[in-house]
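Lecture notes, unit on protein representations.

Consider one protein chain, 382 amino acids long.
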Amino acid sequence: MSTLNWRESLPSLSAPSSDRPHDAHPIAAMALVKVIGLAVLALWSSLNGKSAHILLSARWDSLWYVRVVEHGYSFTVTAQDGRILSDMAFFPLFPALERVLSHLLLISPADAGLVISAVSSLFAAAGIYRLVGLFTDYRTALLVVVLWATLPVSIVQSMAYSESLFTAISSWALYCALKEKWLFAGLLACAAGLTRPVGVAVALGVWSAVAVSVHKKGWSASKTASLIISPAGFSSYILWVGAQKGSILGYLDVQSEWGNGFDGGTTFLKFAGALTVTPPYVGGVALIVAIGLAIWSYVLGFLGKYPLPVQVYSGIVVLLALGSSGFFGSKPRLLIPAFSLLIPLAVFLGRKARVVRVSVVISMCLVSASYGAFWLNGSGPP
């Protein structure tokens, strides 16, 4: 199968330093960063009289995934304001893998979740590396992996959460789409749709790749199959929840009970604006600057002529993360799958001297580890 020739349209990114991928490099980099982060978390937690293991495996979403394993989709909690919080808000692939792995390894579902996240983060590193290397170069791709691993909230990648699993599946789905391996792309997009609601971004990314290929080369049976399979994951789960709730919009009702909705970012912008006029002001300013940088980085993707599937995927991830009306503290981790936003920074660093690149990476690693430990020992991700 041939690769769609995206690289020819990207002379402005950087000259390829190597045309051969070395998957061991991103995997080793990810593993090293995660070990450092976990070591700092363990030390920080110990000094605060807390268990790093519990912080990673038995709080927030991690507990809800375990409840799905233990009770199926029948567990609810009544909030203090009377809302009924249902575990149907959580998509099924992650808890299904927890159930299988806990039986195979004779460990608890929570510990199985940690194993899944650890392994998935390595697959995500390799997937991001391979995907970004298709249309930039593998040095830039390696820097994107390192930047992704050292995000301020990257400790989530080590938690019993679904972010690492989703990013791994998504990156490889898009890679397969750009390599025109349509059945693999469709199956992986389907799996992404069973992992998180934002799996729709992966399906539409694959669809856009099919559209580009059809325009150039015409239809094929495998392309048709990919179009059908790609959205099957998220659509089947949403339809199942609707059947359980007796309404085709049942999943939206479940999310509404959790305080989640989509208003195009109006509520979030009001929240950020309120922070800018509330002492000490810096929080609101920093938040608005961060939003601006994320949008600017996304626009650079069009100027740099990134592959359309990558832009479609990232755009929907960003839109759903910033456009939702609930859990403002979750925005940073909801943006974790949008790894392509890190490409401009990776290109910039790639043009600097090695000592500068190494210094920046080490600094980001230490800041990420420290912030992650501070975050989990405090409010942490909702």
